[in-house]
Amino acid sequence: MGLTLKQAQGVVQAAHEKAVAMGVKMNIAVVDAGANLVAFIRMDDAWLGSLDISIKKAKTARFFDMPTGELGKLSQPGGPLFNIEVSNGGLITFPGGIPLVGDGGQVMGAIGVSGSTVENDHTVAEAGVAGLPAR
Amino acid sequence: MGLTLKQAQGVVQAAHEKAVAMGVKMNIAVVDAGANLVAFIRMDDAWLGSLDISIKKAKTARFFDMPTGELGKLSQPGGPLFNIEVSNGGLITFPGGIPLVGDGGQVMGAIGVSGSTVENDHTVAEAGVAGLPAR
Amino acid sequence: MGLTLKQAQGVVQAAHEKAVAMGVKMNIAVVDAGANLVAFIRMDDAWLGSLDISIKKAKTARFFDMPTGELGKLSQPGGPLFNIEVSNGGLITFPGGIPLVGDGGQVMGAIGVSGSTVENDHTVAEAGVAGLPAR
Amino acid sequence: MGLTLKQAQGVVQAAHEKAVAMGVKMNIAVVDAGANLVAFIRMDDAWLGSLDISIKKAKTARFFDMPTGELGKLSQPGGPLFNIEVSNGGLITFPGGIPLVGDGGQVMGAIGVSGSTVENDHTVAEAGVAGLPAR
Predict the structure, then answer these.
(1) pLDDT tens digit string along B103-134?
(2) Which residues form the signal peptide (chains A, B, C, D) (predicted)?
(3) What is the pLDDT of residue C1?
(4) Does the structure show a pLDDT above 70 at A57?
(5) Which candidate, C77, C119, C116, C70, places its Cα nearest to that of C92?
(6) Number of domains in chain D
(7) CB within 8 Å: C38 and D39
(8) Identity of the residue in D80, D82, D88 whose CB atom sits nearest the CB atom of A52
(9) CATH code (residue A77)
């Protein structure tokens, strides 16, 4: 069964609360197993350019079922996936995107977060993952 | 002052509740005065193709500060704005997008709804507009 | 010899003054013989969606060396150029774009205006054409 | 309150005068807080390919509220934002884009300059920033 809106909103809310607690301004996107957007928010005064990046991080994490930062290790000059970022209308391969995994181990979608350092982006995305509600 | 996330979420929630009450499955998007996305939800089993349409409706309504259906009256064959839809990366000119207007009369952004008949889309968008919270 | 910046700015200024006199809020674009932008202004509170349209009108007028509205007569359903608007990354074929013609009869570029009715857009574009300075 | 056309034109003019004084041929773009173009000029014989770059520099500087060159330090191979340039329809992350900041510290938009070395581009952009008129 697919990711529900209720679940996606739970993920967004958990990430949002973490961002507020950290004092960072984030764009937060959740996509489903088809890599299509289910829920999105942009916090007040968050970087405008991070809107697109948050969605691309979520898509990238689902496209390859791994955290975006892992893909970024492989896309460096000389690496096996050099410049993979130009595919799929644009991938983002630095941290901040993480797959959402169901109880049975299946990937249900992904979260993408952008608006601060990549470490902060990843931390807020982790909070979103942890907040995935059971169906 | 710009549209806040809290206001955008209030608009989305009001539209969402209307859609649930009507038994329709919608994509609901809210953009700010710069026509950039602030909040978005896709209801369970809503048409996937309506995702992009809802965002384009919101953008279109803000781009021209009028309900999308009004623009569509002018873009018909023989009309003064025939095929305006190819501009701005794609406009949607049938009903479902409505500007959000502040107390002072200034356009603060817009809502775009897609997922049912254009009449239903417009009705749900109107409910979203009516739900715009004061700051 | 190509259209100079000074000439393009003269065209923009003449159009701008006409728009102010008419009380309309316009986006005004001027392209050169290569259909590439030379000068652009967006008046305060002009429609945001008219930004792209003004540039597309200028390009369209130069692409076919005729006023955009003339092309629009041919692109209607049943007409010889039906839906030509999808070419070239998007054409605009309603009035508001007019070629700029040099003393020798050669097309030097074009002006595109968008922000009001197509009649007003065309009138402001005509004022821009009339304001083309000699080199 | 948003950036006015008069302010944007003042920024463009200051940058233009600097470019003339330096003997360089520039494309100069100014966007508002929504990252949408307000004013643009291309100097005679300026690189044609710099047209798009100047606009993308201005957008990039506003998207992340920092000079484009600062972002470029982070987007190098092995850096935290490697290949961020594929997002947002294309970013430019070398010098030449700088935010425009209002008296109250709020970002009002940005200037983007392209047509010479990146050092010269940045210098001309700085002149534009210094020329931002009070409202």
Answers:
(1) 889 999 999 999 999 999 999 999 999 999 98
(2) none
(3) 61
(4) yes
(5) C70
(6) 1
(7) no
(8) D88
(9) 3.30.450.150
**A15 is a domain residue:** yes
Q: Does D62 touch chain A (CB under 8 A)?
A: yes
Q: Are strands C97-101 and C107-114 parallel, antiparallel or unpaired?
A: antiparallel
Other Cβ atoms within 10 Å of D130 Cβ, number:
11
Q: Is residue B101 a part of any domain in this protein?
A: yes
* Mean pLDDT score of chain A: 97
Residue C135 lies in a domain: no
A92, A113, A119: best mutation site toward chain D, by most D Cβ within 10 Å? Answer: A92
Chains B and C in direct contact, meaning 3 or more beta-carbon pairs closer than 8 angstroms? yes
Q: What is the ipTM of this complex?
A: 0.95
Q: Where are the beta strands (DSSP E) in D18-93?
A: 27-32, 37-42
DSSP strands (E only) in D1-135: 27-32, 37-42, 97-101, 107-114
pLDDT digits 0-9 by tens, A8-32: 999 999 999 999 999 999 999 999 9
From the list D34, D59, D82, the residue facing A72 with the nearest CB is D82
DSSP per-residue letters across A30-72: EEETTS-EEEEEE-TT--TTHHHHHHHHHHHHHHHTS-HHHHH
Domain membership flag for residue B107: yes
Radius of gyration of chain A, Cα coordinates, nearest whole angstrom = 14
**pLDDT at residue C95 is higher than 90:** yes
Parent domain of A13:
5-130
Q: Is D1's pLDDT higher than 70?
A: no
Residue by residue, DSSP assigns B22-78 as: HT---EEEEEETTS-EEEEEE-TT--THHHHHHHHHHHHHHHHTS-HHHHHHHSSTT
How far is it, in rounded angstroms, from Cα A115 to Cα A43? 9
Q: Name chain B contacts of D58, Cβ cutoff 8 Å.
A: none
The single-letter code of the amino acid at D2 is G
Distance CA C75, CA C84 (A): 6
CB-based contact C112:C29 (threshold 8 Å): yes
Closest to A110 in 3D by CA, of A98, A118, A122, A94:
A98
Chain A touches chain C, with at least 3 Cβ pairs below 8 Å, answer no
C1 burial level (CB within 10 Å; 0-12, 13-18, 19+): exposed
- C107-114 β-sheet, strand order: C97-101, C107-114, C27-32, C37-42, D37-42, D27-32, D107-114, D97-101
pLDDT in tens, C26-65: 999 999 999 999 999 999 999 999 999 999 999 999 999 9
pLDDT bin (cut points 50, 70, 90) of residue C23 is very high
Residue D88: pLDDT over 70: yes
Chain A residues with CB under 8 Å of B39 CB are 40-42
